[in-house]
Design brief:
By secondary structure, the protein is α+β, with helices and mostly antiparallel strands. It is built from 6 helices and 25 strands. A 6-stranded mixed sheet has the order 2-11-9-4-7-6, with no helix packed on it.
């Protein structure tokens, strides 16, 4: 290529040669595929086990420093030599599963598929498989299909190799031969500086989650010594250590192999006070985290206590009760106080130390009973007779001769005055209505009389006018003025009658 460029120098100048060289390099590097490479494998890849023994292998992914975020694979195993006890996801780098880990002993297959929202570049455990050695021979475990997808936004399959494993099963109960020694992979540190060596070979178990139907809340006190504690055994746990101790940082020493899922407590291993149930799991990696579950026991009632009755400061006052009980183990929760036949009520320890004043009791002798209750519900009862000489009577029995005059206070007098004013206004309104009704009746009567008289007057006036008009009109000849006078008189008579009738009708409408 350089020869061609030199032989063509007469066609292009120096600047064009530089541009062509740059373009050539860009085209060259654009055609180069910088593909990453990752392995999916089983670990350990070999081992020797006795017939009937169980062992666990990890399916791991080694991105070799690059970033991947998904793996899918199918494995096959020799079903005549090996059988799968369980497959699990504990400690997996995946949190999302496209194919849940599953197996078939009849077909000799194992399948899984998963991914992680966060890409990883260190060697990491994907799943675990627990095998049982069935018969003598050499059992092979191999990948039938596998893919490892790069976290490049395109899901590029970067799988380079998927080596399997071979496991030898011997007869009888011969000791297990350790797998051949191979150099440990060089620990690779991520950006945080944390080594991936633990991830490469699995993790020890997590601290157990311990529950109890007998002791539900570890922060509460209980007045019993019998109960049971339970937990779930993960598939890869091979032993459990359990112990009752007084320290919250205890390492349990009593080992159960095979592992147990429960522990029974009784008076033989429990006593009053605070103790801890220590539980720890072991798997093929080693012993894991420890759970020290608190147990608070108090089966002893509070100590006997006395009630101090303090007389009032005057001859007519109520007595004051002062009392305080002591509970060595859990402490006093509250007191239940009952006086005579009244309903019991609760008193707090602080109120008891300040004293409780007995009130609203008639003179006489009463029995006061106080129950001290500790945090676990244990009780101690104490009682004392109390003499009341306060001279108090219930309000319903008090007779005060001056109570009548006490009614006439300034406030009550103002209310009485306002009430009387309201009554006076009401009476005045009634009186005015009656007076108005009387005047209204009289006006109706006068209006009727005016109407009747007007009708009589206009009737007589109309007759007289008609007679005069008829007399005038009988004359043989009337002048023009005489005719106009007659017509004007008739019109005036009609208008007057109409107006007067209208006014009379208006008055009638008002009086309706």
């Amino acid at each position: 290529m350089w020869v061609l460029l030199e032989n063509s120098s007469f066609l292009i100048n120096r600047s064009y040669r530089v541009a062509l060289l740059a373009t050539t390099f860009l085209l060259f590097f654009s055609m180069v595929d910088f593909a990453s490479a990752a392995d999916v494998l089983v670990s350990p890849a070999s081992g020797s086990y006795s017939q009937g023994q169980t062992f666990t292998v990890n399916v791991t992914a080694d991105p070799k420093g690059d970033s991947i975020n998904a793996v899918e694979a199918a494995l096959t195993f020799d079903k005549t030599v090996l059988s799968v006890v369980s497959v699990g996801k504990a400690g997996s780098a995946f949190s999302l599963w496209t194919t849940e880990p599953k197996f078939s002993n009849s077909a000799g297959t194992i399948e899984f598929g998963g991914g992680s929202p966060t890409p990883f570049s260190n060697r990491s455990t994907l799943m675990t498989i627990t095998f049982r050695a069935l018969a003598e021979g050499s059992g092979a475990v191999s990948f039938s299909t596998a893919s490892a997808l790069a976290a490049d936004g395109r899901g590029t399959d970067v799988l380079e190799a998927s080596p399997g494993g071979t496991y030898t099963v011997t007869a009888g109960t011969a000791p297990v031969t350790p797998p051949p020694t191979t150099p440990d992979p060089e620990p690779v540190s991520d950006d945080t500086g944390e080594s991936n060596a633990a991830i490469a070979f699995g993790d020890p178990p997590r601290a157990p989650e311990v529950g109890s139907p007998s002791f539900l809340d570890p922060e509460l006190w209980y007045s019993k010594l019998d109960g049971i504690f339970t937990w779930e055994i993960p598939f890869d746990v091979s032993a459990v250590a359990v112990e009752i101790a007084t320290s919250s940082e205890n390492d349990p020493s009593e080992v159960f192999d095979p592992p147990t899922e429960e522990f029974v407590v009784s008076p033989e291993n429990l006593f009053d006070g605070i103790q801890y149930l220590s539980v720890q799991f072991e798997n093929q990696v080693g012993w894991g985290g420890i759970t020290n579950r608190k147990i608070q026991i108090d089966t002893t009632a509070p100590e006997p206590f006395s009630i101090n009755v303090q007389a009032g400061t005057s001859a007519s006052s109520f007595p004051l009760l002062v009392f305080e009980a002591n509970d060595v183990t859990s402490g006093i929760d509250h007191y239940e106080l009952a006086i005579a036949d009244k309903e019991p009520f609760e008193v707090t320890p602080d109120e008891a130390r300040l004293g409780y004043l007995i009130t609203e009791l008639e003179d006489g002798t009463y029995t006061v009973e106080i129950i001290a209750v500790d945090m676990a519900g244990n009780e101690t009862i104490s009682s004392v007779p109390v003499l009341i000489t306060a001279g108090w009577l219930p309000p319903s029995e008090i007779e005060d001769e001056s109570s009548f005059w006490l009614f006439f206070t300034g406030k009550n007098l103002l209310i009485i005055f306002l009430l009387l004013v309201s009554i006076g206004e009401f009476v005045y309104i009634i009186y005015e209505r009656k007076l108005f009704a009387k005047k209204e009746g009289k006006l109706r009567k006068e209006t009727k009389e005016v109407q009747d008289q007007m009708e009589k007057i206009f009737s007589a006036l109309r007759d007289e006018i008609y007679d005069q008009v008829n007399t005038i009109t009988k004359r043989p000849r009337l002048s023009k003025k005489e005719k106009e006078a007659v017509e004007g008189l008739n019109q005036a008579l009609e208008v007057s009658e109409t107006l007067i009738e209208k006014e009379i009708n208006d008055v009638k409408k008002i009086l309706k």
